[in-house]
Write a structure and sequence with these properties.
- The strands form 7 sheets. This protein has a 7-stranded mixed β-sheet, with helices on both faces.
- The chain has 16 helices and 23 strands.
- The N terminus is likely disordered.
- Bound molecules: nicotinamide-adenine-dinucleotide.
- Nicotinamide-adenine-dinucleotide (NAD) binds next to helix 9 and helix 10.
């Protein structure tokens, strides 16, 4: 032990002279006609055409198949089965837990520099030779356009891996004071047990980060990807393995959600949940954890980033076209299937005719279609039949409710893909469910407020929903902006001034919301990694103790 302490001290000294790792955000490529990135992407898309990739569970370092076969369908062409996969059984999930635990000590003892190297290498692979593949798989499997795939599966994922590596190395440098008589050190250990990473369908980057960030910090992980993002999740997993991640550190465990949740939360070794998805699923898992609390060896860390009911507020001093363009992007990009998508717009009465005209003009120009055939599409189909039915119910509500007027869109068609038109609805009731609940589709609800009731509308925005994820104010008047910052302080974990509510960038706007939107652990920021370490403080004293009595006793 003493030898280890000395090593630690020496390590600390070396660190002081080590320059910080310099990383910058990955540039977003443009995919202009004739560009090499466009050619590479088109080639990757052509290779996936009509193909069904077979994706196994990867447990104990082995590819495993079970009889419970499932398919991932392309949202915009549901006759195309993009992936064939299978669900891990309860026994296999338990096997994955044991295999992960067996790998834990060695992985945790590996120096953070070595662990970070693996993620830096994975980032370089994604930035270069594997970029087109993950983009194409995100487009075909999750229905993203070129740019939406690029900002997610390339830029954000690469940024997560690079910045997390930087933050982990900086954390290691964060050491306590040592004195002349003692040396103190902080050892950033992984958690003792396994972490379950449960990812949503809508961001390839999130899956990679939910599994990757705890692994970087020395944890072993069971990654349960989303059924509707299997193709891209597996591509990311393969990249991590090829970058040098040892086989058992992250187990790839596609499975039925509730079966996975029941099994992991009933293991005594369960020590963390890294979840992104809907509020009901996170609440359910939290309850299961509390029911099992007496079993656990540790108090599990629970991190959950969930839904939102994100707002755009237009003040009478706003630059109208900027507010409208930002709203069209935020509400409709990726078919409104971003947790941060704007789904309620508050417009002042005097500007409403202008806003309405520009919104409708923009709406008329939006092309919805197959994003792999027509790069001019703004968004594509929604993710699956379940989402399509849910949105159809919202459209029925918009048509039948007396307080709602359908201004544009309202159609949907699932004959080829799960297509829902962009839809704009005006509500005269600011508390209609359409203004309160997460919709997660291309549906924008608008409430028009009297100009002089600015303060009241701020209070309304703050109190209308239980969510607190993102929101934006559009105003030129500084006093109005300051007032919105004060009154909406708890209404959004990510607050934008004259910018849309979506598009958080790693290291620039660490992301997450409070209230029921989640635990707000801010992935993409430096503090996130603290959730995935259990630091050990070590003191080594150099001066022998010669007397048990204190001086005052003499
Ligand atoms: P979801 O809750 O349906 O599923 C998320 C994951 O949980 C999936 O992998 C699913 O299979 C799994 N799951 C379902 N039941 C489970 C259970 N009982 N135990 C364990 N796992 C279970 O969410 P989704 O439809 O994939 O994603 C959309 C939701 O995610 C939206 O509400 C969106 O706002 C939210 N989201 C939030 C953020 C954020 O950062 N705040 C980011 C992306 C998505």
């Amino acid at each position: 032990m003493w030898r280890r302490l000395r090593v630690l001290r020496d390590c600390g000294r070396r660190w002081q002279h080590r320059p910080a790792l310099q990383v910058t955000n990955e540039p977003i490529l443009e995919f202009k006609p004739g560009s090499p990135e466009r050619a590479a992407l088109q080639k990757a898309l052509a290779e996936l055409k009509d193909k069904t990739e077979e994706i196994p569970c990867v447990i104990g370092g082995e590819e495993v198949w079970t009889p419970t076969v499932r398919y991932q369908l392309s949202p915009f062409n549901h006759k195309h089965k993009v992936a064939k996969f299978c669900y891990a059984s309860k026994e296999l999930i338990n096997k994955a837990i044991n295999a992960a635990l067996a790998a834990r000590k060695e992985w945790d003892l590996k120096p953070v520099q070595d662990r970070a190297q693996i993620f830096l290498k994975a980032a370089d692979m994604l930035s270069g030779p594997r970029r087109a593949e993950v983009l194409a798989k995100t487009m075909i499997g999750q229905g993203k356009t070129v740019i939406q795939a690029e900002i997610d599966a390339a830029a954000e994922l690469i940024d997560f891996f690079r910045f997390n590596a930087k933050y982990a190395l900086e954390l290691e440098q964060s050491q306590p004071l040592s004195t002349g008589s003692s040396t103190n050190a902080m050892v950033y250990r992984g958690l003792e047990g396994f972490v379950a990473a449960v990812s949503p369908f809508n961001f390839t980057a999130i899956g990679g980060n939910l599994a990757g960030a705890p692994a970087l910090m020395g944890n072993v992980v069971l990654w349960k990807p989303s059924d509707t993002a299997l193709l891209s999740s597996y591509a990311v997993y393969r990249v991590l393995l090829e970058a040098g991640l040892p086989p058992n550190v992250v187990q790839f465990v596609p499975s039925d959600g509730p079966e996975f949740g029941d099994t992991v939360t009933s293991s005594e070794h369960f020590c963390g949940l890294n979840f992104t998805g809907s509020v009901p699923t996170f609440k359910h898992l939290w309850k299961q954890v509390s029911e099992n609390l007496d079993r656990y060896r540790n108090f599990p860390r629970l991190a959950g980033e969930c839904g939102g009911k994100n707002f755009h507020l237009v003040h009478v001093s706003a630059d109208v076209s900027s507010a409208v363009n930002a709203t069209l992007r935020s509400a409709f990009e990726f078919g409104g299937q971003k947790c941060s998508a704007c789904s309620r717009l508050y417009a002042p009465r005097s500007l409403w005719p202008q806003i309405r005209e520009q919104l409708l003009h923009g709406h008329g120009q939006i092309r919805v279609g197959d994003p792999t055939q027509d790069f001019g599409t703004f968004f594509s189909a929604v993710i699956d039949a379940k989402a399509f039915s849910r949105l159809r119910r919202w459209l029925d509500h918009a048509r039948s409710s007396p307080s709602l007027a359908l201004l544009a869109g309202g159609g949907c068609d699932d004959s080829v893909g799960f297509y829902v038109e962009p839809c704009i609805v005006e509500s005269t009731d600011p508390r209609d469910p359409i203004m309160r609940e997460e919709i997660f589709g291309p549906l924008l609800a608008v409430f028009v407020y009297p100009d002089h009731q600015y303060r009241e509308v701020l209070e309304l925005i703050d109190s209308t929903t239980p969510y607190g994820l993102t929101g934006a104010i559009f105003a030129q008047d500084r006093a109005a902006i300051e007032e919105s910052r004060r009154l909406l302080r708890n209404a959004a974990g990510n607050f934008y001034i004259n910018d849309k509510s979506t598009g958080a960038v790693v290291a620039q706007q660490p992301f997450g919301g409070s209230r029921i939107s989640g635990t707000n652990d801010k992935p993409g920021g430096p503090h996130y990694l603290l959730r995935w370490t259990s630091p050990q403080a070590i003191k080594e004293t150099h001066v022998p103790l010669r007397d048990w009595r204190y001086a005052y006793m003499q």
